[in-house]
Amino acid sequence: MKKTMNARVEVLTKKVYAYYRAHGRHAMQWRRARTPYRIVISEVMLQQTQVSRVEKKYPEFIKRFPTFQSLADARTTDVLKVWQGMGYNRRALNLKRAAEIVATTYKGKLPHSPSILETLPGIGKATAGSIAAFAFNRPVPFIETNIRRVFIHFLFSRKKKVSDEEIMKYVVGTIDTKNPREWYYALMDYGAMLATQKKENPNRKSNTYRTQSRFSGSRRELRGKILSLLLAQKTVLKKEIQHAVKRSKEEVESILSVLEKEGFVTHQGAKYTVKEK
Fold first, then answer.
1. Does the annotation count 250 as an active-site position?
2. Mean pLDDT of all residues in 106-119
3. CATH value of 2-205 in 1.10.340.30, 3.20.20.140, 3.40.50.10090, 1.20.210.10
């Protein structure tokens, strides 16, 4: 059984690298002009967002905020306006807060350690690992959706439920310690290919798999509409927001309360505005 699995691992490695050499997505902007700052921006943007959307928004964001310092100094409204269209606006706020910490605590230099990176706002364990690998070429094991898909496809095709703990053993065992950056690029590119060619998504076998909730009519959609309205106008009355989004007073008040707690908005009486800093 062990010999069979070792053979599968060898096939995985050869096929992944062969595919990458022939079809790797080398033209991605964050792979060509690689700096720690740009890696942070791209990795956070790629959380729960299609590559095609990131490719359109990334150059605009980098042009407007080219460094940790420029992002740290920016007004929250300006950051959110550039972010418009990406969704999950909390990521933009977290990026600004992370930039503020890097600019002050670390004098503008991103830490190499995944354990430190993980303490930055919006940077979880997997993203900390990917940043360490791509920004500093460190052989840090991490799992994200495309990497998970590759290992399930090759090594767990007959198993119904697969945990990340099971996958992690093989992630650790297959890391190219001489060039982990390229190995992870190769894994991600192969996983992206599988997503378009496999009839059934291998990730459905993962214990972490969740179907995405419907966006239309959701609280997430309502949050986006309210925030877009506030960004378009300096000050908006609560009743004007309710009229514009055509939702109940209770729903609007609930969203506004959450946005205020998260640091997106501030208000005086019934007048709401996006927080400047």
1. no
2. 97
3. 1.10.340.30
Q: What is the largest CA-CA distance in the chain?
A: 70
The continuous run of DSSP H or E covering 261 comes out as: helix 249-261
Whether residue 2 has pLDDT greater than 70: no
**CATH assignment of 219-274, among 3.40.50.1950, 2.40.30.170, 3.40.50.970, 1.10.10.10:** 1.10.10.10
Q: Among the options 10, 43, 166, 262, which is catalytic?
A: 43
Residue 167 bridge partners (DSSP):
none
Per-residue pLDDT band for 194 (boundaries 50, 70, 90) equals very high
pTM of this prediction exceeds 0.70: yes
